[in-house]
From TrEMBL:
Keyword Cell wall biogenesis/degradation attached: no
Residue ranges of domain GST N-terminal in the record: 1-81
Name of the protein described by the UniProt record: Maleylacetoacetate isomerase
Keyword match Ribonucleoprotein: no
Family: Belongs to the GST superfamily. Zeta family.
InterPro entries with a match to the protein in the record: Glutathione-S-Trfase_C-like, Glutathione-S-Trfase_C_sf, Glutathione_S-Trfase, Glutathione_S-Trfase_N, GST_Zeta, GST_Zeta_C, GST_Zeta_N, Thioredoxin-like_sf
Keywords: Isomerase
Superkingdom per UniProt: Bacteria
UniProt EC number: 5.2.1.2
Pfam families per record: GST_C_2, GST_N_3
GO molecular function, one term: maleylacetoacetate isomerase activity
Domain GST C-terminal span(s) in chain numbering: 86-209
Organism ancestry: Bacteria, Pseudomonadati, Pseudomonadota, Alphaproteobacteria, Hyphomicrobiales
Length: 209
């Protein structure tokens, strides 16, 4: 399998964590978002939206969208499971993950920021405020959803942790205060000591700059 990736993409970061948790070998091919490589026609043939990550299977079939890729990996190698066995906890873990992937991440991703700058003339300080607003509001909701034990929904990492840690990375990158999020900070502490999360962090990737 081949993962089309960018070291600082939080969506790709999620998939790298899942790959590491599953102890799978996946070839990585970086797509440099700031250089516009995602708009190359060859890559757009793989990812019609021109986003990362994209997973190419050994038979050539393609899967886009980080949560769809993670779901495939979980089905491909069921152990360790990425959702709790209890159906309510599993649904709650999904809800936390979707809050991040659907409610926080899209509002601060590169395509949206470029549109705010290029089409609406937003200044750098306005962009910074925009990012801080939506990340802080979203993480406040996640704070209320999780119950560290020590991970977001139990003794082992789940889909919620896989989505949360890249978003916390972005929060720190964009100077969003986490003082009001003690549960998130507790989960972060547990995750940053876990080998899979260490392996997947942006600074550890071959294309890191």
């Amino acid at each position: 399998m081949i993962l089309y990736d960018y070291y600082r993409s939080s969506a790709a970061y999620r998939v790298r964590i899942a790959i590491a948790l599953k102890n799978l070998f996946v070839e990585r091919r970086p797509v440099h978002l700031l250089r516009g490589e995602q708009r190359d026609p060859g890559y757009r043939a793989k990812s019609p939206l021109g986003i990362v990550p994209t997973l190419q299977l050994d038979d050539g079939r393609l899967i886009t969208q980080s949560l769809a890729i993670i779901d495939y990996l979980d089905a491909l190698k069921p152990e360790p499971p990425l959702l709790p066995k209890d159906p309510v906890l599993a649904a709650q873990a999904r809800a936390a993950a979707l809050t991040i992937a659907c409610e926080i991440h899209p509002l601060a991703n590169l395509r949206v920021i470029k549109a705010l700058q290029g089409e609406f003339g937003a200044r750098d300080d306005q962009i910074a405020a925009w990012r801080r607003r939506w990340i802080a509001e979203g993480l406040s909701a996640v704070e209320a959803l999780i119950a560290p034990a020590p991970f977001a929904f139990g003794a082992e990492p789940s889909l919620a942790d896989i989505c949360l840690i890249p978003q916390v990375y972005n929060a720190r990158r964009f100077d969003v205060s986490l003082e009001a999020c003690p549960r998130i900070l507790a989960v972060e502490s547990a995750c940053t000591a876990h080998p899979a999360f260490i392996e997947a962090r942006p600074e550890a990737q071959p294309d890191a700059e």
